[in-house]
Amino acid sequence: MRAVVDTVEAAYPGEGCGLLLGRIVDGAAVIERTAASVNLAPDPLRAFEIDPGLRLRLQREARAGGLAVIGLYHGHPDMAASPSAADLAGAWEAGLVWMILRVEDGQMIEARCWQLAADGSCFVERPWGVARGRAVAYGPPRAVEPG
After folding, report:
1. CATH of the domain at 56
2. How many domains does one find in the chain?
3. Taking the chain, what is the end-to-end CA distance rounded to the nearest angstrom?
């Protein structure tokens, strides 16, 4: 979690971003590793785009270690830690954990986890916590319209 927070705070006022690696255990997404990405969006102050080369490399490495890329994270500078309309428009992979962190004046003040609904119509909030030093997303979900 510290690495995620450091990434989004360092990118402020832009959107820091990265990938979450782990596994699904009893329906919970257990995050075991994170990897910061360069934000490749044309306007990193208003959007994020994770380096696809990083994702491909991490997918290969994760498989070898029994893990998978199970999600992503990004900062929302001076706005809510909920998916934006742009997040929904750019989301295409249902089931990934989306950790969104609200960053104000360079400091992370809130983190929330989401998943894209199977039909792609909205994000579903997934409550989360830190267990044994690892961030965990866990159920039950509730649907929330993009804000």
Report:
1. 3.40.140.10
2. 1
3. 24
Q: What is the pLDDT, as a whole number, of residue 128?
A: 82
List the domain range (segments joined by +) for residue 75: 2-144
User: Residue 142: which residues within 8 A CB-CB, separation 6 or more?
Assistant: 124, 125
Nearest CA to 34 out of 58, 52, 64, 60 is that of 58
CA-CA-CA-CA dihedral for 74, 101, 125, 48, to nearest 10: -20
23-46 per-position pLDDT tens digit: 988 888 889 999 999 999 999 999
**Residue 2 near residue 109, CB atoms below 8 Å:** no
Measured in degrees and rounded to the nearest 5, phi and psi for residue 145 equal -75, 150
Q: Dump the DSSP string for 51-99.
A: -HHHHHHHHHHHHHTT-EEEEEEEEEETS-SS--HHHHHH---TT-EEE
- Omega of the bond prior to 13 within 30 degrees of 0, cis? yes
Tell me the per-residue pLDDT of 49-101, one tens digit each, with 9 for 90 and over: 999 999 999 999 999 989 999 999 999 999 999 999 999 999 988 889 999 99
